[in-house]
Amino acid sequence: MLTRNCRLCGHTLSHIFIDLGISPLANSYVSQARLHQMEPMYPLRTFVCEECFLVQAEDFESPQHIFSDYAYFSSYSDSWLAHCKRYADMITERCALTPDRQVIEIASNDGYLLQYFKEKGIPVLGIEPAANVAERANERGIPTSVEFFGQEAAASLLEQGKRADLLIGNNVLAHVPDLNDFVAGMKLLLADSGVITMEFPHLMRLIQEIQFDTIYHEHYSYFSLTAVERLFAKHDLIVFDVEQLETHGGSLRIYAAHRSRMGGAVSSSVIELLSQEETFGMTRIQTYADFKEKAVKVKRQLLRFLISLKESGKSVVGYGAPAKGNTLLNYCGIDRDYLDYTVDRSPHKQGLFLPGSRIPICEPDRLKETRPDYVLILPWNLKQEIMAQTEYIREWGGCWIIPVPEVEVIE
């Protein structure tokens, strides 16, 4: 095995968390013109560090290749937008944000979140590496800088007189190959009395609910509070509070600040969650070693169910074209023999094909035209929103399939 070192602590990695075979990049959707060309395929294997317990994937492609032109636009999920508005209202009051304060978001996408601060008259700045997505934000009046964040970008912003009273990073930490450079940049950009909030999927929930499909090449790392606290402490930042959220199948929202401001004071929520993680086994290697077999059981169950449906003449289609869905389909070997097509609300994905499986992506109205018997919800974390949007499939007896953590049919 090639020598691999932990992104957080530098320890040599030797423990495999899960090996999902080979897979294309999860967001590398295929155009009609490229259907007859080969796709790059890479091993999708993750390791766990026995020192800091960070779970991390091997990196085969640079962030510049993956994220410079991105197919994911955050504003196409109603429930996510509602979550963001609630956050903006809450944090504005909690941090007493006023028009003389500066809010900066790293990986700000299409302005989905900063729009709510702008409405309050609070100055905002987005930092977004994907030029096509940043263009959409700028069109909406959300000033957005196109660059990858780290110490160099932070120093440049400081030279321009920018410092963050509130520094936000939602679902970006997993996309960062150089964690120490990234967090060092956050420390540099954060005002002396400023607050960092970050949201990311919780590794403990991933393990508990067998969410193996949330693993893909674009996610370099997977985090417990235990690992994140160590990462921030390394850069003299303290995680002083934490909330457990239901977004993305179970996430954490951490609050961090300069240690010099907070001293060693942390909330009871931090202490309690660290204790829960230890009790669950997040600091024991065996907890991670047992995950593979659980994922294999989910794979076999889903395949058996889809085969039984197709052999009985039922029609099955997908809903959504998320990255997690592409991991699920490619790991399970599901292609057009199982799913006739999938639909997605984003016009940026419609007319393309899923990577690997080559399943076509259509507009949602295709469901009404073909009246499928079953709809496999690929972004299962949004199942309530999707079921509400597609309630009409009940008119012809259609059912929904939820694949993770076990096959569930909802009539």
Automatic annotation (TrEMBL):
Keyword match Transferase: yes
InterPro entries attached to this UniProt entry: Methyltransf_Zn-bd_dom_put (IPR013630), Methyltransf_Zn-bd_dom_put_sf (IPR038576), MeTrfase_14 (IPR013691), SAM-dependent_MTases_sf (IPR029063)
Methyltransferase as UniProt keyword: yes
Domain (C-methyltransferase) ranges: 247-405
Source superkingdom: Bacteria
Cross-referenced Pfam families: Methyltransf_13, Methyltransf_14, Methyltransf_23
Domain Methyltransferase putative zinc binding: from-to ranges: 6-67
Stored SUPFAM superfamilies: S-adenosyl-L-methionine-dependent methyltransferases
Gene3D superfamilies the UniProt entry points to: 6.10.250.3100, Methyltransferase, zinc-binding domain (6.20.50.110), NAD(P)-binding Rossmann-like Domain (3.40.50.720), Vaccinia Virus protein VP39 (3.40.50.150)
GO BP annotations listed: methylation
Alphabetic keyword roster: Methyltransferase, Transferase
GO MF annotation terms: methyltransferase activity
Xref: PANTHER family: BLL5978 PROTEIN, TRANS-ACONITATE 2-METHYLTRANSFERASE-RELATED
Name of the protein in its database record: Methyltransferase domain-containing protein
Lineage of producing organism: Bacteria, Bacillati, Bacillota, Bacilli, Bacillales
